Amino acid sequence: MATIRDVAQLANVSVTTVSNVLNNPNKVSPELLARVRAAVDKLGYAPHAAARSLRKRSSGLLGLVVGDITNPFFSELFEAIELAAAARGFSVILCNSNETTEREETHLRMLRSQRIDGLILAPTGTASMNRAALLAALEIPVVLIDRAMEGLGYDAVVLNNHRAAYEATSYAIGCGHRRIALINGPKTVRTAADRLQGYREALLAAGLALDPALVRDAGFREQSAYEAALQLLRSDQRPTAIFTANNLMTIGVLRAIAELGLSCPDDLSIIGIDDLPWAEAVAPRLTMVAQPVRAMGETALELLAHRIAGTRLGPGTTTVMEPRLMVRKSCAAPASMPNAEDADV
């Protein structure tokens, strides 16, 4: 088995330089970095993680706990965080809570046993008596992403969810819609609560009353959104537009439309949050509110790295990132109103 001295000899550098490449790559020139990594790859050298952790009192590992790995938002978020972490010499352990506190708590206990250096957490919306205690027991920096939690003093990176929902709803109203349904997540999740508030305020600004029958909690899940959409579209006074609060639920609504033989946007307009990778590949192309997912992940990792290095001190702050409305073809004037300009908004 190759040793660190073997790597140093092949790369014609000192053992100290090899150690810096492995543990502090920012301190090494690009030329030496490339030479040492080539030697590492050729020899198949792997440092002993446990021994390195004891020497440095650092494992080089970060934890990332997300709510639902099947959601493309979290998949893209992981990729952004993993790439940014690798550039700083960290590896990432990915955990999926599946939006349950039990699994979230299990992951937090496991990550503690792995002696991670820092954690990025997208917390579940369900209240948990154990979560704060488990996070404190980690005794490491924590950054929240996508969903903030009050009172814990952690840095957080979130979307301006109120604005995202307000812009989406306002756009549908501007197209002439008056019966706009919202398929949302649970109110216990801050993200969903803020999106509901933005939806409500956009209606109020247009002089429209909120109809509780048009608001459905689908738990941010595709199947639940599909079922909610079927109920809405089979009702006597069905909506002319549906606003979906995440990409999985948009898929569920599209399934319901197809099953009922309806046409979008002729029979029903759709506008959603999260710009799906294939949003421009379907017919009609989907009007969506895009989140700056990669920037959110990179910002969270940068905050965490500075906390780990001790270059960021004091109480945590919340970084709020802005959405962007992507206007395409799935949201248009209702069939009874040929031109959106005819609407009284």
Automatic annotation (TrEMBL):
Organism listed in the record: Bradyrhizobium algeriense
PANTHER family reported for this sequence: HTH-TYPE TRANSCRIPTIONAL REGULATOR GALS (PTHR30146:SF109), LACI-RELATED TRANSCRIPTIONAL REPRESSOR (PTHR30146)
InterPro entries xref list: HTH_LacI (IPR000843), LacI/GalR-like_sensor (IPR046335), Lambda_DNA-bd_dom_sf (IPR010982), Peripla_BP_I (IPR028082)
UniProt keyword Transcription regulation, yes or no: yes
SUPFAM superfamilies per record: lambda repressor-like DNA-binding domains, Periplasmic binding protein-like I
PROSITE patterns named in the record: HTH_LACI_1, HTH_LACI_2
Record keywords: DNA-binding, Transcription, Transcription regulation
SMART domains: HTH_LACI
Record's protein name: LacI family transcriptional regulator
Highest taxon, organism lineage: Bacteria
Statement: the UniProt record of this protein carries the keyword Transcription regulation: yes
HTH lacI-type domain ranges (all copies): 2-56
